[in-house]
Amino acid sequence: MLGRLLKITVIVSLITLGGNVANAQAKIAYIDFQELMKQMPETKNLQEQINAYSKQFMDQLTAMNTEYQQKGKDYVAQKSTMSDAIRTAKETELADLQRRMESYSNNAQQKVGTKTKELAKPLFEKMRETVKQVAQQKGYTYVFNTAQVDLIVSPPGDNLMNDVKAKLGIK
């Protein structure tokens, strides 16, 4: 028991001492990746590609919705003259069409999300690499993305936005 207590004490001491040494060497900066992305010239082209890709799904969904609306109107107009068997078949057809639209919409959203990530990946890598280079040049050991982390207090000198924009050639 005494040996175990001694080991724990030594480990805690090393962690505390190591943490103090690391804190003395740490230099922290920050940047808002979302704001940087908005200012990148490539973002406009990226958005146009995503819009064109998602438009094909929206067009199909619009066509499906038009068909659903028309069949719904026909059903309401003819409901009183339909036999029970035909009415049940039409109701099943409308419910099936609505389920297909929902499924198609969900699938389209997933595909657009995947395509967005695929198209944005090179841009994110470019941004990340540039931030890394600027941080190394300026001697920073850590850089926080303020789009994901809320910094309550931060000195303006540690914001890398202007330096990264300059390195990327953004005015």
What does this structure look like?
Helix 3 runs antiparallel to helix 4 and helix 4 packs across helix 5. It is elongated, with a radius of gyration of 29 Å. The N and C termini lie far apart (about 65 Å). The chain is mainly alpha-helical. The longest helix is centred in the middle third of the chain and has 55 residues, at about 85-140. It has a two-stranded parallel ribbon. It is built from 5 helices and 2 strands, in the order αβαααβα.
Q: Which labels suit this protein?
A:
171 residues; two-stranded parallel ribbon; disordered N terminus
Order of helices and strands: HEHHHEH
The whole-angstrom Rg is: 29 Å
Number of helices, where a helix is a run of at least 4 consecutive DSSP H or I residues: 5
Terminal residue distance: 65 Å
Kindly state the percentage of residues in helix. over 70%
Q: Strand count, sense and closure of the main sheet?
A: 2 strands, parallel
Q: Which structural class fits the helix and strand makeup?
A: mainly alpha
Query: Given the C-alpha coordinates, what overall shape results?
Result: elongated
With strands numbered from the N-terminus, the spatial order across the biggest sheet is: 1-2
Report the count of strand segments.
2
Q: Give unreliable regions as ranges.
A: 2-12
How large is the share of residues in beta strands? under 5%
